Amino acid sequence: MIEAGIIGGAGYTAGELIRILLNHPEVNLNFVFSTSQPGKQVYSIHQDLIGETDIKFTDKINAEVEVVFLCLGHGNSKKFLAENQFSDKTKIVDLSTDFRMNSENQDFVYGLPELNKEKIKAADFIANPGCFATAITLAILPLAKNRLLNDEVHVNAVTGATGAGTSLSETTHFTWRDNNFSAYKSFEHQHLNEIGQSLKQLQADHDAEINFIPNRGNFSRGIHATVYTKYEGSLEEAKKLYEEFYKDAAYTFLTDGELHLKQVVNTNKCLLKLQNFGDKLLITSVMDNLLKGASGQAVQNMNLMFGLDEKTGLNLKASYF
């Protein structure tokens, strides 16, 4: 069994990780670290776990675990690792932004399996991608692979309230979010840098603008992204490019049906639909921000790092009604 630890155990992504790892056939959840909840039962915070586990939050780490997941706020993972030492054999999966850019950290592999599967298999340290970055990058990677991203990319994407984390702010209160909709961080969202880095990995000369408008939706979880750019080929040709690129992908699928969030929420899937309108290709991308956009992808990466089938422990089903 793989001994695993979680750092920052009280948040949404940690809650999803706990749920997955408790049912993972090859993992024992060794500890859940939290400076805000030490000594409390994990189910006192993640209340759906009543009857599922007797694990308590702790403010001490086991430095000998084989893998540790960092579910800390952005900027805090570097600080935590500087102050706490793990064994030379401990693999790390970081879910923050701290290690995603190659120019800053050469030891961490960017953990998008559809792009870096072989590198992930050989890695000891993984920088788990951001949720918007995953949805948007998967929408356009096949175009970059075929050097077809030669014009501006336009993105309008909506995320659920869980994308903002558990800390309360003016825009996360129910009375503000309910029956409401708003844009934020237009053209300057932090995930743009990692999207650009991934595209350049396949199309080195890519320098066209990615015009990204993120939106807050009045639902709990999920991302719905519409992405379009100029494209000179036929729809059939585009579908062939995407089908070839994702033929070995465990969780990214092309479909001709209408896309909506109930198809993917509570799963590790990303679904893509292609449409063409004149000289434009429209790609719709839907996924769960907490699973394929965070904890599910983190476990997918862990599976690859330990030589397991990447779908192990991730047999998650959508709740359609």
From TrEMBL:
EC class of the enzyme, as a word: oxidoreductase
Main location (coarse class): cytoplasm
Active site per database record: 131
Keyword Cytoplasm: yes
The protein's annotated pathway: Amino-acid biosynthesis; L-arginine biosynthesis; N(2)-acetyl-L-ornithine from L-glutamate: step 3/4
Native species: Christiangramia sediminicola
Gene: argC
Catalysed reactions, semicolon-separated: N-acetyl-L-glutamate 5-semialdehyde + phosphate + NADP(+) = N-acetyl-L-glutamyl 5-phosphate + NADPH + H(+)
Similarity field: Belongs to the NAGSA dehydrogenase family. Type 1 subfamily.
Domain named Semialdehyde dehydrogenase NAD-binding: residues: 3-123
Name by which UniProt lists this protein: N-acetyl-gamma-glutamyl-phosphate reductase
